[in-house]
Amino acid sequence: MNFVEELRWRGMIHDMMPGTEEQLQKEMTSAYVGIDPTADSLHIGHLVSVMMLKHFQRAGHRPIALVGGATGMIGDPSMKSAERNLLDEATLRHNQESIKKQLAKFLDFDSDAPNAAKLVNNYDWMKEYSFLDFIRDIGKHLTVNYMMAKDSVKKRLSSESNVGLSFTEFSYQLIQGYDFLFLFQNENCRLQMGGSDQWGNITTGTELIRRKTGGEAFALTCPLITKADGGKFGKTESGNVWLDRRYTSPYKFYQFWLNVSDEDAAKYIKIFTALSQEEITALEEEQVVTPHLRPLQKRLAKEITVMVHSEEDYEMAVEASNILFSNSTSETLKKLDEETFLSVFEGVPQFEISREELADGIKIIDLLTEKAAVFPSKGEMRKLVQSGGVSVNKEKLAETETVFTTSSLLNDKYLLVQRGKKNYFLLIAK
Question: Are the CB atoms for 11 and 271 separated by under 8 Å?
């Protein structure tokens, strides 16, 4: 597999230094991508560069994931309008371990193959480096004029917000440049990859390697991912879409991909899956013939949910999706774990009911009018029950006098009431 060709048809190349492709065709090469460890989970904004490493390893090369413990303590001025908070070492170590577990779903770290992936943290080689040694060994090789010419620096200096640029942030590209030099010398790493906003920082590294060692190193960047409507990729109303289920449930993760536009699905399926060109072309043709069935979105959502979570989580997410949009049964509902159940019904009106009263048994008509105001009156509820318009836990309610107890609760805690086709209410026993 030709790595550059693979990225090219997937739309994943923005800039590439001359000679990069020739280097990769010549021999197995090591390349690295830097990952910011400011959280203990990656979000889907990180996935583009992670997929670059995945394709790199598939092509027979050796990927290195660099967790920026040192650079995370400083903050990269690229694409930022203000400085970020600095982290302590214990937090950084915790974040690094969590990130490695997530990366292991994409990369082979553990085999004895010559191109097994490696995780490094630049804090390990920066923590003992004194300031005086650093500015003498590294700082003298790059002029201020060279550093000032970088877009990330120019944008911040010319911004109207007058935030300015601290010396700490100005030095960021020097430290990232040193990372590349260190990996070049210690891991025979010849290539750095990243998003197009990193081009300036990456080429500072190639320049530092050239000036300090006379060696040749390379740079390759991918486009920043955008949405067809101009909105920011990976952001939802509730914030980032995370890979860790504690922050974004597998159901919500699956839903994010399932709900992208046709145009975005055609782009994302190339970037975020390892499906072949032939498979993707077949799916695109299917989409043209049956757009209402959304084959691109469904396959994209499946591939990436299985890769990040598991086959079981994917199947649970599909079943959960069907609950809202089809005539699913109470059996399906009972299969859902609490996390998925709450994700599906997030935002529906909730009522607290007494577990003690429920334990003694309570008529559903009293429960849904007096204890929880699902219906404004008993008369209105009776009318809707007679026309078959009320369900509890996805089972049609035939009788308003039916008695419910704690044994009816889902996850020993919830009753799901459906009024008409689209109105859901969640009763929580406390």
Answer: yes
Amino acid letter for position 167 = F
Non-local (6+) Cβ contacts of 13 within 8 A are 4, 7, 220, 221, 222, 223
169 in Cβ contact with 83 (< 8 Å): yes
Task: Please state the three-class secondary structure of 76-111 as a single string.
Answer: CCCCCCCCCCCCCHHHHHHHHHHHHHHHCCCCCCCC
In the predicted model, is pLDDT for residue 81 greater than 50?
Answer: no
Enumerate the active-site residues.
38, 43, 46, 80, 84, 176, 197, 232, 235-236
Task: Give the 3-state secondary structure of residue 118.
Answer: strand
DSSP string, 51-71: HHHHHHHHTT-EEEEEE-HHH
In sign, the C-alpha dihedral spanning 92, 94, 98, 100 is positive
CB atoms closer than 10 angstroms to residue 130: 9
Side chain identity, residue 312: E
Amino acid at the residue 233: F
Helix axes 199-213, 151-158, angle to 10 degrees: 130
CA distance 120 to 167: 26
Phi-psi region of 420 (alpha: psi -120 to 50; beta: other; left: phi over 0): left
Q: At 85, is the pLDDT very low, low, confident or very high (cuts 50, 70, 90)?
A: low
* Angle of the 295-308 helix axis to the 311-325 helix axis, nearest 10: 140
Round to whole Å and give the CA distance between 87 and 92.
7
Question: 340 in helix, strand or coil?
Answer: helix
pTM above 0.90, yes or no: no
In sequence order, which residues have a C-beta less than 8 Å from that of residue 35 and are 6 or more positions away? 42, 46, 49, 50, 65, 66, 67, 68, 99
Written as six digits, the tokens of 347 are 């935002």
- The dihedral region occupied by 268, where left means phi > 0, alpha psi between -120 and 50, and beta the remainder, is alpha
- Lowest-confidence pick of 16-20, 155-159, 268-272, 310-314: 155-159
Residue ranges of the alpha helices (H) in 214-273?
250-258, 262-271
Residue closest to 191 by CA, chosen among 55, 2, 24: 24
Residue 266 has pLDDT above 90, yes or no: yes
Q: Please determine, for residue 243, whether its predicted confidence score (pLDDT) is greater than 60.
A: yes
The pLDDT, as a whole number, for residue 79 is 47
**Which tokens belong to 242?**
């995370």
Are the CB atoms for 175 and 122 separated by under 8 Å?
yes
